[in-house]
Amino acid sequence: MNILKNFDLMLAGKPPEKSPEVERLLEEIGMRAFGRSRELASVGAQCVCCGKPATEFRDQLSHREYQISKLCQVCQDKVFNEE
Ligand SMILES: [Zn+2]
Protein backbone atom coordinates (compact mmCIF):
# COMPACT_ATOMS: atom_id res chain seq x y z
CA MET A 1 0.00 0.00 0.00
CA ASN A 2 1.64 3.20 -1.12
CA ILE A 3 -0.54 6.18 -1.91
CA LEU A 4 2.40 8.37 -2.88
CA LYS A 5 3.44 5.81 -5.47
CA ASN A 6 -0.04 6.01 -6.94
CA PHE A 7 0.25 9.78 -7.18
CA ASP A 8 3.57 9.41 -8.95
CA LEU A 9 2.00 7.04 -11.45
CA MET A 10 -0.88 9.43 -11.91
CA LEU A 11 1.45 12.33 -12.62
CA ALA A 12 3.37 10.17 -15.04
CA GLY A 13 0.13 9.74 -16.97
CA LYS A 14 -0.27 6.08 -16.18
CA PRO A 15 -3.36 4.53 -14.72
CA PRO A 16 -2.91 4.08 -11.00
CA GLU A 17 -2.68 0.57 -9.77
CA LYS A 18 -5.31 0.00 -7.15
CA SER A 19 -5.40 -3.24 -5.31
CA PRO A 20 -8.55 -4.26 -3.44
CA GLU A 21 -6.60 -3.41 -0.31
CA VAL A 22 -6.01 0.16 -1.49
CA GLU A 23 -9.64 0.45 -2.58
CA ARG A 24 -10.76 -0.53 0.89
CA LEU A 25 -8.39 1.94 2.48
CA LEU A 26 -9.52 4.80 0.24
CA GLU A 27 -13.12 3.95 0.99
CA GLU A 28 -12.34 3.98 4.69
CA ILE A 29 -10.54 7.32 4.43
CA GLY A 30 -13.44 8.80 2.48
CA MET A 31 -15.97 7.70 5.02
CA ARG A 32 -13.92 9.03 7.93
CA ALA A 33 -12.81 12.26 6.32
CA PHE A 34 -16.00 13.20 4.51
CA GLY A 35 -18.71 10.95 5.96
CA ARG A 36 -19.46 9.89 2.42
CA SER A 37 -18.81 6.76 0.46
CA ARG A 38 -16.41 7.02 -2.44
CA GLU A 39 -18.25 4.15 -4.06
CA LEU A 40 -21.54 6.01 -3.99
CA ALA A 41 -19.94 9.29 -4.97
CA SER A 42 -18.37 7.58 -7.93
CA VAL A 43 -21.57 5.93 -9.11
CA GLY A 44 -23.46 9.23 -8.87
CA ALA A 45 -20.57 11.23 -10.39
CA GLN A 46 -20.47 13.27 -7.23
CA CYS A 47 -17.70 14.79 -5.19
CA VAL A 48 -16.86 12.79 -2.10
CA CYS A 49 -16.03 16.01 -0.27
CA CYS A 50 -18.85 18.48 -1.00
CA GLY A 51 -21.39 16.07 -2.50
CA LYS A 52 -22.00 18.24 -5.56
CA PRO A 53 -21.95 16.80 -9.08
CA ALA A 54 -18.41 16.33 -10.30
CA THR A 55 -18.79 16.42 -14.05
CA GLU A 56 -16.59 19.26 -15.24
CA PHE A 57 -12.83 19.23 -15.03
CA ARG A 58 -10.18 21.62 -16.20
CA ASP A 59 -8.05 18.99 -17.87
CA GLN A 60 -7.22 15.32 -18.21
CA LEU A 61 -5.14 15.35 -15.08
CA SER A 62 -7.96 16.76 -12.99
CA HIS A 63 -10.34 14.19 -14.40
CA ARG A 64 -7.91 11.43 -13.59
CA GLU A 65 -7.50 12.84 -10.12
CA TYR A 66 -11.25 12.57 -9.67
CA GLN A 67 -11.10 8.90 -10.58
CA ILE A 68 -8.68 8.43 -7.74
CA SER A 69 -9.71 10.84 -5.02
CA LYS A 70 -13.36 11.46 -6.03
CA LEU A 71 -12.85 15.17 -5.50
CA CYS A 72 -14.56 17.67 -7.80
CA GLN A 73 -12.57 20.42 -9.51
CA VAL A 74 -13.42 22.97 -6.83
CA CYS A 75 -12.34 20.70 -4.00
CA GLN A 76 -9.23 19.60 -5.88
CA ASP A 77 -8.26 23.25 -6.17
CA LYS A 78 -8.77 23.70 -2.44
CA VAL A 79 -6.77 20.62 -1.59
CA PHE A 80 -3.90 21.07 -4.01
CA ASN A 81 -3.54 24.85 -4.00
CA GLU A 82 -2.70 25.50 -0.41
CA GLU A 83 -1.92 29.16 -0.38
ZN1 LIG B 1 -16.26 18.95 -4.15
Give structural notes.
By secondary structure, the chain is an all-alpha fold. The chain has one domain (3-80). It is built from five helices and no strands. It has helices at 3-11, 20-34, 38-43, 60-69, 73-80. The longest helix is centred in the first third of the chain and has 15 residues, at 20-34. 17% of the residues are buried. It binds zinc ion (ZN). Zinc ion binds next to α5.
Helices and strands in order:
Blueprint: H1 3-11, H2 20-34, H3 38-43, H4 60-69, H5 73-80
The structure holds zinc ion (ZN).
Zinc ion is lined by residues 47, 49-50, 52, 71-72, 74-75.
Which features would summarize this protein structure in a list?
binds zinc ion, 58% helix, 83 residues, mainly alpha
Count the domains: 1
Largest β sheet strand count, sense and barrel closure: none
Specify the overall morphology.
Answer: globular
Helix count equals 5
Task: Give helix and strand order, one letter per element, not per position.
Answer: HHHHH
Count of beta strands: 0
What share of residues are in beta strands? under 5%
Chemical compounds bound to the protein? zinc ion
Low-confidence stretches: none
| Overall radius of gyration | 12 Å
